[in-house]
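S.,

Sequence below, as promised.
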Amino acid sequence: MFNRNTTWKRPNDSHRFQTICASCMILMGQFATAQDTLLPSQPADAPSPLTLSRIGSSVAGERIVSVTCDPFMSQVQEHALMRLLLEQDDAPWINISLNQLKDRLSNECTVWIDEESLEEISIRIDQMLMNEVPTGVLGARLSALLGSHQLAYTVRQNRLEISSIRSKDSGIRRIYDVTPLVRTVNNGPGSPSIVLAHPLVGIIESTVCPDSWQSAGGNCTIREFIPPCSSDCVCLIVVNSTENHLAIQNLLDQLNSFGVPSRLVNVVPKKPVQAFQLKRWQADRLDTSKF
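The prediction came back faster than expected:
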């Protein structure tokens, strides 16, 4: 090691030492830069984005993987807005209108109100909607305020949109990887597999806002999709409001926590036990000297 008391034997030694130090600093800087590219850009407490990185990303017993189909909002932006909806809000909401609500939330996110859809149900943006909204989670307060007037909120295009429930643009698209929650039956070699996903679709439609689906006269849809690259992956493409997507996500997570098998396992029958093996086993059981 070099120190301040080192006696340089040649005039060039000092220059060489400075060159070595400079090279070390450059290498340390390059290492730090490379390390930064490997670290996540989000803070440690931020939720990691959910991505369908591979076929069959959902695992039995864990959270169902889902992704947004919004081309104008990244998953990081979506998570930031969803975290805002889950925050506690204790500010008084007494005789509040949509205009006042927009002003209160403008510091946290962008709010857009679909006034055209409001006119269809005879609601004005300056109209007082409720006498008082109980304090609690922001998303729950929005549901209490908007739901009683046939309104809904939607997280889309990196903003919070408020419109009527019957609006054609009130739904957003989301893909759920429900592979662990469906069962595929293999009819044998050379035969296509049959995916039993219809019971799951019926459970969602009958549990989460039944009046919103097309089968009940609403505008929301749910479709089954099997990627052509793999017959083992089953996805659901759902169009509904953000509030209903939260309910669907929670429902699927709860169902998946029960460890529902993702497919029927074809059990290969064991070879029949030969008679001489059975006699030998019986003889061993009777021979107590072996125990």
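Helices lie at 11-38, 75-85, 98-105, 115-120, 138-147, 198-207, 242-256, 275-286.

Coffee later?
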